[in-house]
From TrEMBL:
Domain of life: Eukaryota
GO CC terms of this entry: endoplasmic reticulum membrane
Pathway: Glycerolipid metabolism; triacylglycerol biosynthesis
Chief location: endoplasmic reticulum
EC number(s) per entry: 2.3.1.-
Transmembrane segments: 21-41
Family: Belongs to the diacylglycerol acyltransferase family.
Organism per entry: Eleutherodactylus coqui (Puerto Rican coqui)
Record carries keyword Endoplasmic reticulum: yes
Coiled-coil regions, chain positions: none
Name the UniProt record assigns to this protein: Acyltransferase
UniProt-annotated location(s): Endoplasmic reticulum membrane
Keyword set includes Hydrolase: no
Gene Ontology molecular function: diacylglycerol O-acyltransferase activity
């Protein structure tokens, strides 16, 4: 295989961008495992008392990811996130102001392999979320299992990540003061299996839980399309019905995690590795869909709002696709 190496005279700014993405990839892919190993080592070392104290803290703090968050504006504003966003670059595009007196559910599409756009835009200030949407407090939902990992849970909560269980989103959206934005990657981990360059396949037609949640709490719905999200990694061909796809789907049902076989680039070469490629990502936040509170929505209420949401999502795609490199003839693939 021909390997394309990076030139030696790369500007310092680009090297810092690569370093920022490298630490993110490490955090996303292996930091949880490292934290778990560290805790086990503490348990069987002379510092076992520290492990015991942390176990007490974990017991006391167990429900925090489901009852709120423990974000740190200092962590969200680290300079490293500016370099992270500029690596691709990631751009956050506002199409309409959002009134902070209301609560919102942002439907993020597509999931992509590693949800890069959602993290960069809503878990950091790398793209200036607070400046574009003053008064809003974003919360990105993440699988509950990651909040059970010692030490790692503290880090991800500092970036405003919260558990994706139903109780978590309900607690956030119940705040009457408004200004809360729950960000949901609607397609979930299964959609990662369709994340390939040049494709935009969304799993949404059977996803109604976020619609019911919006109606129950009167949270306004905001469709969000992240153009370029699927271009960051290549994935082993796995068409529906193939042996690989069938195995991946079975593992996903058992483990709750999608396991796409993907590759990007390395630190010193561009041909293979776990770093995403330097390709632009434009995350377009659409106009809000007003939702009246309905504590007991009927199936018809849910279906009606779901149809409206899908229509607005399609409109958002059609309005912006040519600006961000998608041919006029291309259509969203929904299932």
């Amino acid at each position: 295989m021909w390997i394309q190496f990076a030139p030696l005279n790369v500007p310092l700014d680009r090297r810092l961008q690569t370093a920022a993405v490298l630490q993110w990839a490490f955090s996303f892919l292996v930091l949880a495992q490292c934290c778990l190993v560290l805790y086990i080592l503490l348990v069987f070392s002379q510092y076992w008392a520290l492990a015991a104290l942390y176990a007490v803290w974990l017991y006391i703090d167990w429900d925090t990811p489901s009852t709120g968050d423990r974000r740190s504006e200092w962590v969200r504003s680290w300079t490293v996130w500016k370099y992270f966003a500029n690596y691709f670059p990631i751009k956050l595009v506002r199409t309409s102001p959002l009134d902070p007196r209301h609560n919102y559910i942002f439907g993020f599409h597509p999931h992509g392999v590693l949800v890069v756009g959602a993290f960069g835009n809503f878990c950091t200030e790398g793209t200036g979320f607070s400046s574009l949407f003053p008064g809003l407090r974003p919360h990105l939902l993440m699988l509950p299992v990651w909040f059970r990992v010692p030490f790692f849970r503290e880090y991800i909560m500092s970036g405003s990540l919260v558990s994706s269980d139903k109780r978590s989103a309900s607690n956030i959206l119940s705040k009457k003061s408004g200004g809360q934005a729950v960000v949901i990657a609607v397609g979930g981990p299964p959609e990662a299996l369709d994340a390939k360059p040049g494709e935009l396949t969304l799993q949404i037609l059977k996803r109604i839980g976020f619609i019911k949640l919006a109606l129950t709490h009167g949270a306004h719905l905001v469709p969000v399309l992240s153009f370029g999200e699927n271009n960051l990694y290549y994935q082993v061909n796995n068409p529906p019905g193939s042996l690989l796809r069938t195995a991946q789907e079975k593992l996903q049902r058992v483990m709750g995690l999608a396991l796409p076989l993907f590759h990007g680039r390395g630190v010193f070469q561009y041909s293979f590795g776990l770093l995403p490629h330097r390709r632009p990502v434009y995350t377009v936040v659409g106009a809000p869909i007003p939702v009246e509170k309905n504590p007991s929505p009927s199936s018809e209420d849910i279906a009606s709002l779901h149809a409206l949401y899908v229509e607005k999502l399609k409109d958002l795609f059609e309005t912006h696709k040519m600006k961000y490199g998608i041919e006029k003839e291309r259509q969203l693939v929904l299932y």
